[in-house]
Protein 1
Amino acid sequence: MTYTFDEWFVVTLARTISDREVVFHGFGSPCAQVAMHVAKRTHAPDMLLIEGAMYAVNPNPPFIPPTGNDSSLKQGAAYSMKFEEFFDAAIRGDVDRMFLSGGQIDAYGNTNVTAVGPLEKPKVKLGGGGGGCNISATIGQLTLWTTRHRSGRTLVDKCDFITDIGHVTPAGNRAELGYTGGGPQWMVTELGVFDYDSEGRARLIEVFSDVDVDTVREATGFEFTTAADVKTVASPTCAELAIVRGIDPLGVRKSEFDPAELTRTYDHVHDPGCNC
Amino acid sequence: MIFLDPDKRVDLATAASHIGDGALLALGGGLSSRLPMALVRELVRQGRTGLHVVGSAHSMDVDLLVAAGALSICEESYVGFEQDLGLAPAYRRAAESGTITLRESCCVTILTQLRAAEMGLPFLPVRGIKGTDMRRLHPEYAETTCPFTGEVLVAVPPLIPDAALIHAPLGDLHGNLYLDKPYVLDERFAGASRAVIATVDRIVSTDELVEYGITIPAHYVQAVAEVPFGAHPASSYPNYAYDRDHMGVYVKAASKPESAAQYIEEWVMLPDGEDGYRAKLGEESLQRLTTWSESTETWKGLFA
């Protein structure tokens, strides 16, 4: 059996979720959305899955639609929160994890989804941050992701605008700002996986099997350290792959990738971790 | 404000006439769901200018107002077509050339400002914003020190829209509205705004509406117009799913000023307004959007 990169990427995101966490993704985030359903159906059955933009609690959608607030996404949910119910939970600290991306991401995990270039005359006006600005301060842990690392424009030395906060901003760190959330814990890109060191800077810990550390360095606009032993990202199990394909038959997750990334294909090798 | 007339029913042109040039408008719904598209199209037909919009995550409603030159200030938390159809073309072009004022905000900040308005308070604090660049877009924010803990928080003023434009699947003659979740900010908009101007796919009896449940009560509503498919190409569940194909047609057209203008001429500036719009879309394509509940395959097929 073979699998494609988008499937491996989604499974890698799913593995950043722990069981019994309250987890949320924002709109326009199909990879994170699929990942949450993969986690819920594998290693995190008792997570509280809050479907972004629908605020449905533990839904069982028949498929992932190409928009974040189609009613298919609340099917099987006994309850859907109101908008303010979710955001209140997030700002008082009752949400454990959120997935967050950005057009620009710096070494501390600050993200820009507002504008590239000068604010008065942006080079690119990005869509905007939804609710991320406030809730990135108070949610327990953040899983950052980007599918555009290789472009060289995404992981930058300095964000042109900080929409959502990481570990350290020019105005101070989280403790100095009075923020209760833990900030970015992981960053998954189409090249590898980073964690964050004691100073709040991204540190490369894993690369995908067809990527080397030099490729990651060339694509990254900030200096980063690496783990003593940079490992290969663990491959997906048959069970995880089957769930990805089952929950996302329309392949909505693929819309996040440059077409070239979708040609990355791998042979599935049975290992002790795979119970297929 | 409170509206006491027992019968709020008007036609769409009259409903839109309550909105003046330069009005501060709250746009109901979000992304691809329950956008007040018929009202947006009617405002364009009536040549409204200088509008200031506020809300959470929106798409074609805002972009069409920008493309038509009706919008001056945008205070939405997001404008775009998600990963599927990408950045909002007219909005992006206007923002990059400086023809609209960017006052992008955050869902939580907007919610807090609406709550201040609902409670008649001069401000409320939020815990976030510090450390971000959001105050560069909002010089009106201030800081306040908690009298109990000494914590310094960002203070935001009340937000009182001149009108909230809300589309609902069902309503009654008094202006009571039933919404399907997600309500997004619509209940807060109703409480904070000076008036709710509503469109509904269908007016039903109050008894029937009560069976569904009333989400927004009539006393907030100044006018209600019955406009079938009034959210199109956004969804209005349980009546119809969103029209992804038509959103695609719009996004493609909006990518250039000339084709954007042509879209507006062809799809908005129709002499018989919304009747003409529905006729142009055709009975068959509209009915197709109502088939979502037949089976999973049918539903999924609408988006394939």
Protein 2
Amino acid sequence: MSGPAAVASHRALGLTDSEYDLIVDKMGREPNRVELAVFSLMWSEHCAYKHSKKLLRRLPTEGRHLLMGPGENAGAVSVGNGLAIAFKVESHNHPSAVEPFQGAATGVGGILRDVFAVGARPIAILDSLRFGELTSARSRYLLDGAVSGIGHYGNSIGVPTVGGEVYFEAPYEQNCLVNAMCLGIAPEERLIRSAAAGVGNLLVLMGARTGRDGIGGASVLASAELNSDDASKRPSVQIGDPFEEKKLLECCLELLERGTLRSLQDLGAAGLSSSSAEMASKGEVGLDIDVSKVPLREDDMEPFEIMVSESQERMLCVIEPQKLAQLQGVCERWEVRATAIGEVTGSRRLRVLAGGEAVGDMPVEALVDDCPLYDLAPARPEGQVYPAPQRTLDSHEPADILPALLASHNLSSRRPLFEQYDCLVGSRTVRRPGHADAAVLDLRPDGAQGAIAASIDGNGRRVACDPYTGTVEAVLECAANLACVGAQPLGLTNCLNFGNPERPHVAWQLERSVAGMADALTELGVPVVGGNVSLYNQSGDGPIYPTPVVGMVGAVPDPERAAGAGFSTEGHTVALVCSPAGTVSLSGSQLAKLHGEELPDRLPEIDVTGTRHVIEAVRDAVRDGELASAHDVAEGGLAVALAECCIEGGIGATISLPSYELEALFGEGAGRFLVSGPAEALESLAELATPIGAVGGEVLQIDRRWMWTLDELREAFGALALAFP
Amino acid sequence: MKFGVVRFPGSCDEVDALMACRRFADAEILWHGDRDLAGVDAVVIPGGFSYGDYLRVGAIARFSPVMEAVKAHVLAGGPVLGICNGFQVLCEAGLLPGALLPNAGLRFLCRQVDVEVVNSDTPFTRACAAGDTLSIPVKHTTGRYYAPEETLREMDAHGQIILRYATGCNPNGSLADVAGVVNRDGNVMGLMPHPEHAVDPLTGSADGSCIFQSLMDHVEEGPARLAEARA
């Protein structure tokens, strides 16, 4: 079998001995250097999903609005009027942990390419971020870098960042999470797939030159744990150029409009190797690629380097040979480089040529389909595996607790982040970040009626308490956020951020989390349109909190009626809307965190069907235009939600509750909303709504015992500004 | 009446500006490589970015062929509106006094701000009244207006400072709260706030409409009528 040199080489590239033996078997010989490099990436966790593929089959992927499901560059749903929304969320965790600015920037660049690769114009970005506690200098550095990087790319390319979420927890200290979601819009008939087709057609590489940046990113960074020598991995992080991508974007959309392209694919992880193999596999064809034709940034690059480079801002397309001149004309106008680098063959093999010489020849099927899939060996750990958080609050008095919760970094205003992003470009943004529970985007600029809404959610802390229930909660919260603006979910994209799946307790988290997601989505009738799995998120300190992130897109018939989160009008009634069977608990809550309590090892069970009814009732009331405001009661519980409604609306409220236990004020649970409006308008919510007070004045007053001025609430809520001096 | 909105490589607010203009009159995109303005009456240099702005903002765009035509249009007395990056380009091109420096906070900032109309006696503000407060968003990294003291004094004396950030709203440290200026002849305006993002209450505010309305009135009715009204 393999000699000592080859052993060292395949192990260094992240392949196991048995995987290497299987490659030799499929090839019928030892792979050469180029082939080994290509295989190592195609068979990496990042490209092959070898530890998650079997699990992901449990997720529902059928729905009546679905146009394009998992497997394409992005999924797509129909929003009526002949329009499609393509969307997807993807992680760029490890690159961001190594170099936060470029890691986050290229994460945005990558997800934008995924969306325009299916023919859709990107119209919105949302992001989901996790860092360690901001008491650590490293976390402040990562936060600042990642936020700047997201803004740099999104602002420069002219796609608004309309929403997102961020949490700070110690298990993310070494391994931060940067997940970016993009939505794009296209006429349904303009959507394009990536399958290469037509023997004799040309393979054309468009966009930036290929350099040595990002070599081995998929295997070295994305599919292994982080170590202390990560600074030495900086050359594996790509450098983003939003200007180049803006030209590429406009160029590709014009080519699609003219009908020049047969198929289109972006170059992401594993560069040319992955994009070409995927195109060939989907089209059931072969491809010949001549690496000597690839425009290079450095002229002494080896063939294997050209095949695996992750240089940004590149796209691969297939065209009929007679359309080359048309393609070149459009590319010249947009100042985009375009080079024919190969052709479609009937061989079902990926052949790599360097001039006249063949330097690699691999069966496409072996690259894409034959990577072994592993069964997880899940085992529920005995008790909680995460250490208790640092205690930061001693008081058990509501008077002290509310300001402390508002000022805690997981709950304080996200405005200092949102203000660094252009949320307006495109002239579609009806509800800006922070103003409502979900972003609302007008479709009138696209010649359609109505609007769409989008939200991205996840709560690793809750999933760490109970992977199944925590994930159900995340899905329900996302649907609840959409309901607040009157949106019905059409589809969901997910990013599963977990630790090393070869560890039994991480495997257990992953398995339970996917089960929860599948059950919640089945109950809601929402399909998964695509997504991403990011494993091996752990360092010497252990795994991150298991963090499934979900992004939903929904339809809003009348954007004028999309409710804001803030109270608006003196004299309006405030009501708490929840399922009669709903439960709240302080277990695993933000208050428990401030008190330094250990995470529980389960959460109270959720009545999913009852919660769905509540979500639907709120959505219908918003759609009927009856509510002045609607806000999901989430982390920090009812008192925090009340404070948020007062701060956002710039008006106070007087509240009385049936109970003033800490659990009633600060307990957390799924499917609860705070709404306001004229008393008679709330009647449509019938027995689900309990009036608890009235809007008005300059203070939030609860039971006459506790009173905070708006200024006091605002000051506490503004705590995150200190992270951006 | 027809507006022309310039598109440079990497422009990203040009479609927003085009849509805003079309609420008031005809409008079309002008390509950066063309040396002719296709007979438009007023030119908008949009916000966003141009050529990536990796050098100094606006420093490359001013050399693009279309800017020669824009300069000729200015010399002929035609109106030109530069929004954000457009303001930066016009300063770089020497068509407006002063310069735009990195924000005092050194970060990109996107925020709804109040601006006050200082001078309503221009082709860009004639549909407003002096003292009006407009709620318009800003979004930029490089928007701190600077001009030497002497220049600023002269500009003030000639009514060239036409928009100021309202008290407490200066987002970037601009000298004298300057948000928008005109050239001495009054036919070139630059402003950092984005009126094209403030033409519809559904997306936040319609207060930016008055800038486009003013330009349309100026072209349709001509400057004579304005002078008459003043008299």
